[in-house]
Automatic annotation (TrEMBL):
Reaction equations catalysed: uridine(1498) in 16S rRNA + S-adenosyl-L-methionine = N(3)-methyluridine(1498) in 16S rRNA + S-adenosyl-L-homocysteine + H(+)
Organism: Williamsoniiplasma lucivorax
Pfam families for the chain: Methyltrans_RNA, PUA_4
Domain of life: Bacteria
GO CC field: cytoplasm
UniProt protein name: Ribosomal RNA small subunit methyltransferase E
């Protein structure tokens, strides 16, 4: 069992609240059993040494090798309908994404009420936490506040900056991915796609268009396809 913990005292991790309830009451772990504690983006194999009424203490046995990707990726995604959106958050977390920037394009059908943003980010972060635990990641992807003004994407640029565009036939992904880079930001449009004028704005920000081939992929397929291709190309 994997837990993200934030309390440590002389190399022992303290599990409280949700973590404690899950370990003690749901999976009913016992003293002597082993768990993995994630702390400050590192993973440790630990042994439970004490179970109290409202917390448990796990002693650090050894640090585990990182499962994090060597390339930092920022996914700038047109927000799509909830069910598919939740699916993309889960899959990109499994595939090692570092951060997600929900973005509203002209053709976005999904609108996010300003007063609902905090609650949505909390729910989206929980999806990523569960996916990070399931995929044995020591890092939970960051979900940024939704972007409406595309100019603000400047702050999320990386060494390599791509916008996935089905009309960019002349720019196949392969030639782009096998260049050397340590960080990648990629943009995927919503169900309705990205307008030509928006592509031009993104080009002025330094996002180069790239194609995933001749077929039109659903938004959720495109972002998963790109990150899968990167996993394969960079063998992480
Ligand atoms: N223009 C599309 C259509 O005609 O149905 C709608 C957009 S598509 C459903 C959603 C997003 O996935 C696009 O904005 C683009 O970012 C990405 N995408 C889909 N197919 C792609 C391809 N072959 N190459 C690059 N990006 C693609």
């Amino acid at each position: 069992h994997y837990y993200f913990v934030n309390e440590i005292t002389n190399n022992n991790f303290i599990l409280k609240n949700e973590n404690f309830k899950h370990a003690a009451n749901v999976v009913k772990l016992k003293v002597g059993e082993e768990i993995v504690c994630n702390y400050h983006e590192q993973s440790f194999l630990c042994e439970i040494v004490l179970i109290a009424t409202d917390h448990l203490i796990a002693q650090q046995l050894k640090q585990l090798p990182s499962t994090e990707a060597p390339i930092k990726t920022i996914a700038i995604l047109g927000i799509i309908r909830e069910q598919k959106w939740d699916f993309v958050l889960q899959k990109l977390t499994e595939l090692g994404v570092h951060a997600i920037v929900p973005t509203i394009f002209k053709r976005s059908v999904v609108k996010v009420e300003p007063k609902a943003i905090e609650k949505k980010i909390l729910r989206w972060t929980k999806i990523c936490e569960d996916a990070a635990e399931q995929s044995h990641r020591s890092v939970v992807p960051i979900i940024h506040k939704p972007i409406i003004n595309l100019q603000e994407l400047e702050q999320y640029k990386s060494e390599l900056n791509l916008v996935l565009w089905e009309d960019a036939h002349q720019k196949p992904l392969k030639s782009t991915l096998n260049s050397q880079f340590r960080s990648l930001s990629f943009i995927v449009g919503p169900e309705g796609g990205i307008e030509q004028k928006e592509i031009e704005i993104l080009a002025t920000l330094g996002f180069e268009t790239v194609s995933l081939g001749q077929r039109i992929l659903r938004a959720e397929t495109a972002s998963i396809a790109l990150l899968s291709a990167l996993n394969y190309e960079k063998e992480w």
